[in-house]
Design brief:
With 209 residues, the chain is of the alpha/beta class. Helix content is 40%, strand content 18%. The protein has a seven-stranded mixed β-sheet with strand order 1-7-6-2-5-3-4, with helices on both faces. Helix 3 links the parallel strand 3 and strand 4.
Length: 209
């Protein structure tokens, strides 16, 4: 796995990644739909987010696909002794107090790198009812990169990825397509039903982004 275009990955990061891959294989997770070939830059929008283990199993899947997942974190987490580890693991430091905010900083990151696959748990928290935050969409739109959807079926221990989707600028319509894709994977999952209704409400003008 390519962790960073300019860094040599440290010992701690290599150990952690081996542990993650072991747990992923030990639990029996499998990839049903592969990560799309040729995609070097994208926003990976994942759902549902129901457990702290989501990161472990998703990281195992991306490792199997030879894709380096990136994540954003508060800039203070990248200071001191944890700095190298956070960067090795694919972390991107974000200072929300800077002009332009998070979106502008991530746009610059995309522009400066040959590869960047930013993973986002679009529901925000594990306690979400299924509604999504629009940050993933705004980042992809600003950076001019596609969105790749990712689902996890915890009962079957299966993970799958969608084909890349470019934001059209019509958030409601795009969100509905996203919801329909997720529901095609696990039709009866309540969170996916809530997401589909959220999209329909945005299209109908009953809800904002």
């Amino acid at each position: 796995m390519k962790h960073n275009e300019t860094r040599n990955v440290g010992l701690l990061s290599r150990i952690v990644n081996r542990i993650i891959l072991f747990l992923y294989k030990w639990k029996g997770w499998r990839i049903e739909e592969r990560f799309p070939e040729g995609v070097k830059k994208c926003v990976i929008a994942g759902a549902p987010h129901t457990s702290n283990w989501d990161f472990v199993f998703f990281a195992g899947a991306t490792h199997e696909e030879k894709v380096q997942p990136n994540f954003m974190g508060k800039h203070t987490l990248f200071e001191g002794i944890m700095s190298n580890f956070m960067l090795d693991m694919g972390g991107i430091a974000v200072d929300r107090s800077k002009a332009g905010g998070t979106i502008e900083q991530l746009k610059e990151e995309y522009e400066s790198r040959e590869e960047l696959n930013l993973v986002m748990a679009c529901e925000g928290t594990r306690k979400s009812d299924g509604k999504w935050k629009s940050g993933f969409y705004n980042i992809a739109k600003a950076a001019g990169v596609p969105i790749v959807l990712a689902y996890a079926d915890n009962e079957k221990m299966r993970i799958g990825f969608s084909q890349p989707m470019m934001p059209s600028g019509n958030y409601g319509e795009d969100l509905l397509k996203i919801a329909e894709w997720f529901r095609s994977k696990i039709p009866d999952l309540d969170r996916y039903k809530v997401l589909e209704q959220q999209a329909r409400d945005i299209i109908a003008g009953k809800n904002d982004m």
